[in-house]
TrEMBL record:
Gene3D superfamilies: Histidine kinase-like ATPase, C-terminal domain
EC top class named in words: transferase
Keywords: Kinase, Transferase, Two-component regulatory system
GO molecular function term, any single one: protein histidine kinase activity
PANTHER family: SENSOR HISTIDINE KINASE YPDA (PTHR34220)
Pfam families from the UniProt entry: HATPase_c
Protein name (Swiss-Prot/TrEMBL): histidine kinase
Residue stretches making up the Histidine kinase domain: 30-129
SUPFAM superfamilies attached to this UniProt entry: ATPase domain of HSP90 chaperone/DNA topoisomerase II/histidine kinase
Highest taxon, organism lineage: Bacteria
Catalysed reaction, written as an equation: ATP + protein L-histidine = ADP + protein N-phospho-L-histidine
Biological processes per GO annotation: phosphorelay signal transduction system
EC number: 2.7.13.3
């Protein structure tokens, strides 16, 4: 993130909101594709740039990590194609993250988006048990 902030300082605002008790181990490189897509396809697709927010919080016995941008957003059809791996214009990063969440934790990547308003992706990590 520090490299991207240095490259796009005037066009990129990054906010970290990490609760103190939102602590857990996560699989290596599971956040990187989410953050990369928010920057590349969401924020940097606009001339003005935008804001990237990373929130982590604990609720009951679950850790939630939200990556949110105020970029170009996407349609529900695009989201469905990305999650299913059936969108020929999309890469495999988000699909792989979703598949890893399903196989390791039994959860799915939650994506909400509105065209021209931005996108929110939430990763869900149940605590306890023998996962990870």
């Amino acid at each position: 993130m520090s490299i991207e902030q240095a490259r796009f300082s005037e066009r990129l605002e990054v906010v970290f909101d990490i609760e103190a008790d939102a602590e857990c181990l996560v699989p290596p490189l599971i956040l990187q594709p989410i953050v990369k897509n928010a920057l590349k396809h969401g924020i940097m697709s606009t001339k003005l740039g935008g804001k990237l927010e990373i929130h982590a919080y604990k609720e009951n016995q679950t850790i939630y990590i939200q990556v949110k941008d105020n970029g170009v957003g996407m349609t529900q059809e695009k989201i469905k194609g990305i999650l299913e791996g059936s969108d020929p214009t999309a890469g495999i990063g988000i699909t792989n993250v979703n598949n890893r969440l399903k196989s390791i934790y039994g959860t799915s990547l939650q994506i909400e988006s509105q065209v021209n308003l931005g996108t929110s992706m939430v990763l869900i990590f149940p605590l306890g048990g023998d996962v990870l």
